[in-house]
Amino acid sequence: MLKYLDTHVLEILDPVSQDFGVKILVKLENLNHPLISGNKWWKLKYNLEQAKRDEQKTLLTFGGAFSNHIFATAAAASEMGFESIGIIRGEEILPLNRVLKFAKTQGMKLEFISREAYRKKNENAFIEYLREKYGRFFLIPEGGTNALAVKGCAEFAREKLSSVEFDYLCLPVGTGGTMAGIICGLEGNKEIIGFQVLKGAEFLMEEINSLAKDFSGRIFSNWNLEMDYHFGGYAKRTKELDDFITKIDRQHNIKLDPIYTGKMVAGVFDLINRNRFSKGTTILLVHTGGLNTI
Ligand SMILES: *Cc1c(COP(=O)(O)O)cnc(C)c1O
């Protein structure tokens, strides 16, 4: 089992919450592990258990050059005694960035493939090529999202949030695996708002529904996606976003990353300003981590 540090819930006392009569809480899940932080810990937990049970020696996964998932998988493999292979989208750029340099120090083997090849990463022919090249491995999909990831995130919601009183839960959404798990773990209770960091991505509603249904056998309707807080698209940022992240750090001593949590918290503040939440509402933000890579 991976090490796990228990995390706490912090109240953000901001003029915005006072003006609109809402309470803002943050579950600081980013502090659950020094390297495998936030949602990545929960997404990997049951994948690692399954790999051990299957007596696998090697983990293989996919990601972009700045992927938190690559970072976390490399660290988790090292902690749990697996070999690891990272299939990285795009050409190798030297010197390696912090994420890839770190992955390498954890023992991860990196293979760079073209964007065209990367698009075919889920096709059988490509997986066969990888099996021929690397031998037996436990495959974790891009972003770590699969049924075992949903299971871990459901456990997070069930076990770590049951003692917290709140009406809304907010989180950033990439592939939707974390959100699907949290929806399942809350079993139809509370309202869940996901802040999509990808532009467009109309497939996400369906994806989240199907991940949740595959895991729980149910279709839940107590959730929705906010699509207007991507700040230009995945890994894009604006001065407004950077200023907001700096402000939250200065005023509340909470560090947010520009790819996921910064966009989500900026979105929540904007929705509060637009009167989306009625007086007396408690909003719980999940800090999903992501600070290792910046
Ligand atoms: C990977 C990541 C997400 C996205 O999680 P999904 O399960 O892909 O939606 C959100 N926040 C942080 C900090 C991440 O690293």
Which key terms come to mind for this protein?
10 strands; 2 domains; Rossmann fold; 18% strand; six-stranded mixed sheet; 42% helix; binds pyridoxal-5'-phosphate; four-stranded parallel sheet; alpha/beta; 294 residues
Describe the structure.
The protein is built from 11 helices and 10 strands. The protein has 294 residues and is of the alpha/beta class. The protein has 2 domains: 9-35 and 147-293, Rossmann fold (3-Layer(aba) Sandwich); 39-144, Rossmann fold (3-Layer(aba) Sandwich). It has a 6-stranded mixed β-sheet with strand order 1-2-10-7-8-9. Strands 5-4-3-6 form a 4-stranded parallel β-sheet. The chain is globular. The two termini are 27 Å apart. Residues 38-40, 68-69, 143, 145, 172-179, 257, 260-261, 288-290 line the site of pyridoxal-5'-phosphate.
Helical segment count: 11
Q: Going across the major beta sheet, what is the strand order?
A: 1-2-10-7-8-9
Say what the CATH topology of the largest domain is.
Rossmann fold
Give Rg in angstroms: 19 Å
CATH class of the largest domain: Alpha Beta
In short:
Helices cover 42% and strands 18% of the residues. The chain has 294 residues and is α/β, with parallel strands linked by helices. The strands form 2 sheets. A 6-stranded mixed beta sheet has the order 1-2-10-7-8-9. Strands 5-4-3-6 form a 4-stranded parallel beta sheet.
How is this fold's topology laid out?
Blueprint: E1 9-12, H1 15-20, E2 23-27, H2 39-53, E3 58-63, H3 68-80, E4 83-89, H4 98-105, E5 108-113, H5 115-119, H6 124-134, E6 138-140, H7 147-160, E7 168-173, H8 177-186, E8 191-196, H9 203-216, E9 223-226, H10 239-252, H11 261-273, E10 282-286
Parallel strand pairs: 2-10, 3-4, 3-6, 4-5, 7-8, 7-10, 8-9
Antiparallel strand pairs: 1-2
